Amino acid sequence: MKCYICDQEGKSTEALAICIVCGIAVCKKHQIREQIPVTETYKWGLGEEKVTLPIPLPQVLCTWCHQALVVQKTK
Length: 75
Ligand SMILES: [Zn+2]
Ligand SMILES: [Zn+2]
Description:
With 75 residues, the protein is an alpha+beta fold. It is 21% helix and 35% strand. β1 (17-18) and β2 (25-26) form a beta hairpin.
């Protein structure tokens, strides 16, 4: 599979990861491993509870999603 972002720039680079958010294939240059806190919603009998897991999951993002998710948040 080829890197989607490189393809947009007219280049052809072999992809090595998949962005977990948008699902595009990205090369080493365009993938960012980011630690994202994971919030799980547990449904009980009568309600639900939001729990943030103690250990953030390392996740692979493309540079586009990284901008959208991480850079925005830190503003
Ligand atoms: Zn690329
Ligand atoms: Zn993405």
